[in-house]
Amino acid sequence: MILSSMRDVVFGYGQEAVIENLSLDIHAGQLIGITGENGAAKSTLLKLMLGLLKPWSGTVNFRRIQEDGTRLNVAYVPQQAASFNTGFPSKVSELVSSGYYSRLGLFRRFKAEHRQKVEQVLQRTEMWAYRNRKIGDLSGGQKQRVCIARALVQEPDVLVLDEPTTGMDAASRMKLYGMLREDVSRHGRTVIMVTHGLEEATPYLDALIHLERKEGGWQCSVTNSCNGPSGQEA
Amino acid sequence: MLSYEFMQRAFWAGGLIAIIAPLLGVYLMLRRQALMADTLSHVSLAGVALGSVLHLNPALSGFAVAVAGGLIIEQLRRSYRTYSEMPVAIIMTSGLALAVVLMSLKQNLSKSFGSYLFGSIVAVSNTQLALIALVALLGVAYFIILRRPLYSMIFDEETAEISGVRVKALSFSFAVLTGMTVAAAMPVVGVLLVSALIVLPASLALRIAAGFTSAIFIAIGTGMLGVFSGLSVSYYADTPPGGTIALILLSFLLVTILIQRLLRLIGRRRPQKTIQSKESNIHEILEA
C-alpha cells in the first residue's frame, strides 16, 4: 500500500528552490531511512510529506485514512526535539503520558492500562528511572529519548523521526534502530527516519532515500531492500 | 472595608480575574507571548476611547477591540514566523497611537482615562463585573475542556498538528480568550499593569512547579493572594490598586528567587562539608 506519493514537487525558501521535480512513493510497513549531506533538504522533504509545508508546485498525497476507514495515527519527532523549552513544567512521565492525548480525545479518562503502557515505553527507552525528573533537568540524549517515548506511546501507524539519534551515544543509537526494526517487523508500523548515521543504520532499513545536490540540479536515489525483509519499493 | 458595596464588587472582580489571568499567563509564558497581554491592553485602551467618542459603552467597546486585536496578532504571527515579536510591536504602537488621537477628539475624556490606565476600585461597574464573571467562567471552562490539546500545542505546535490537534483554530481561540481576559482585567489593575497580573504569578509558578498542573494551581494561588492583599493595602493606604497589586506580586517573585538562591547555596555547601569531614577522617586514620 502506498502511504505517501509525491509527484513533480518543487519547493524552496525565499527565491531558491531546494527541492526540484521530486517524484517519490513511500510504501507502508517499512523502515525507511532518508539521508544526504547537510542542506540536502531532508527535513524539508519530511515536512512536505506530512503537510507541514505546501509545495510551490506538484502534488503531495499522504494517505490519512486507512483501508478500514479509520484515521491513520501519525507521530512525529522533529529535528532537535530535545531543544524544547527547558523551563517547561513537566515531569518525564507527564510529558510521555501526553502522547496518549490524541487517542483519548478531550474527555476519555487516562486509565491504569494507559499508565501501564507509559511504563512499558519508558522501560523500552530506558527512561523509567528518570520518570519523576523534570524534563528540563535531563541531558540532550535523555531529552531525545523522552520525545521518542512520547511518540511511541501513541502507538502510531506511522512514526516519522527527524534525526532521532542526536545527542545519543553509539549503544543508545543501536538500541533505537533495533527497537524501530522490531516495531516494523512485529506490528507492521511504518517508520520514516532522517539519519546521518548511514553505515550503522543501513542493516536495519528496508529502503534508503538518498538526497543529493548536484551541479545544475538535485537528485534523489532510492535503494531498496537494505536488509531485505520486505523487498518493496520505497 | 467589605461593608462597602464597591469594595465587595472589587473583591469579586479581583478574585475572578486572579483565577483566569494567571492561568492564561502560564500558557502565554510557555508560548513565549508574555508581551501579548501588554499589547492587547494598549489596543483595548483605543477601544475604550473609540466607545467614548461614538457614545458606546466604553467597557464593551474596549472588550471588542481587544478581542479583534488578539485575532490580528495571531494572524500576523503566522505571517511573520521568523520575526514573531514584530506583530506585537506593530499592534502595541498602533493601539496606543489610536488611543491618543481618539482621546484628543473628546474633551474631558483624559480625566476618566486615569482609572483605565492605573486601575480604580470604584471603576468596577456592574457591567464590568458581569463581563469579568462571564470571561472567568468561559476561560476556566475553555482551559478545562481543551487542557489536552492546549498542552500538546504549547509543548510543540508541529507535533501537535501531526497528531491531530487543530492548531490553527486552537491558536485563534486562545488569542480571543487572551483579548477577553485583558479587557476584563483592565478596570482592576489598569492598562499599564494588566500584564503584571498575567505574567508575574506565572513567572513565579514556572520557577518552582515540578509539574504542569501544579504550575497552574501555584499561579492561581499567587494571583489571588496578590490581588486580595493588594486591594486591601490599596484601600487602607489610599494607593492605586493596579500598582499596589503589581508591587506585591513582584515582591512575591523576588522573595521566591531569593529563597531559591539561598537553598541552592546551602545545597552546594552541604556536600563540600561532607567531603571535608570525610577527608579529615581519612587523614586521621592514615596518621594513626
Write the layout of secondary structure elements.
The complex is a heterodimer of chains A (234) and B (288).
Chain A: E1 2-13, E2 16-27, E3 31-36, H1 42-50, E4 57-62, E5 74-77, H2 92-97, H3 101-104, H4 112-124, H5 140-152, E6 158-162, H6 170-187, E7 190-194, H7 198-201, E8 207-214, E9 217-224
Parallel strand pairs in A: 3-7, 3-8, 5-6, 6-7
Antiparallel strand pairs in A: 1-2, 1-4, 8-9
Chain B: H1 5-30, H2 36-53, H3 58-79, H4 86-105, H5 109-118, H6 126-145, H7 147-155, H8 157-162, H9 167-189, H10 194-208, H11 212-237, H12 241-287
Helix pairs in contact in B: 1-6, 1-9, 1-10, 1-11, 2-3, 2-4, 2-9, 2-10, 3-4, 3-9, 5-9, 6-9, 9-10, 10-11, 10-12, 11-12
How would you explain this protein's 3D organization?
The complex is a heterodimer of chains A (234) and B (288). Chain A folds into two domains: 1-30 and 40-72 and 157-234, 3-Layer(aba) Sandwich (Rossmann fold); 83-156, no CATH class. Helices cover 29% and strands 28% of the residues of chain A. Chain A has 234 residues and is α/β, with parallel strands linked by helices. In chain A, α4 (112-124) packs across α5 (140-152). Chain A has helices spanning 42-50, 92-97, 101-104, 112-124, 140-152, 170-187, 198-201; strands spanning 2-13, 16-27, 31-36, 57-62, 74-77, 158-162, 190-194, 207-214, 217-224. In chain A, the strands form two sheets. Chain A has a six-stranded mixed sheet, sandwiched between helices. In chain A, strands 2-1-4 form a three-stranded antiparallel sheet, with helices on one face. Chain A has seven helices and nine strands, in the order βββαββααααβαβαββ. The longest helix of chain A is centred in the last third of the chain and has 18 residues, at 170-187. Chain B is an all-alpha fold and 288 residues long. Chain B has one domain: Orthogonal Bundle (ABC transporter involved in vitamin B12 uptake, BtuC). In chain B, 84% of the residues lie in helices and 0% in strands. Chain B has helices spanning 5-30, 36-53, 58-79, 86-105, 109-118, 126-145, 147-155, 157-162, 167-189, 194-208, 212-237, 241-287. In chain B, α10 (194-208) crosses α11 (212-237). The longest helix of chain B has 47 residues, at 241-287. Chain B is globular and about 90 Å long. The mean pLDDT of chain B is 85. Chain A binds chain B through residues 50, 52, 71, 73-78, 81, 84-85, 87-91, 94-95, 98, 101-102, 104-106, 134, 151, 154, 160, and chain B through 26, 30, 32, 145-146, 148-149, 151-152, 155-156, 158-159, 161-165, 205-206, 209-212, 214-215.
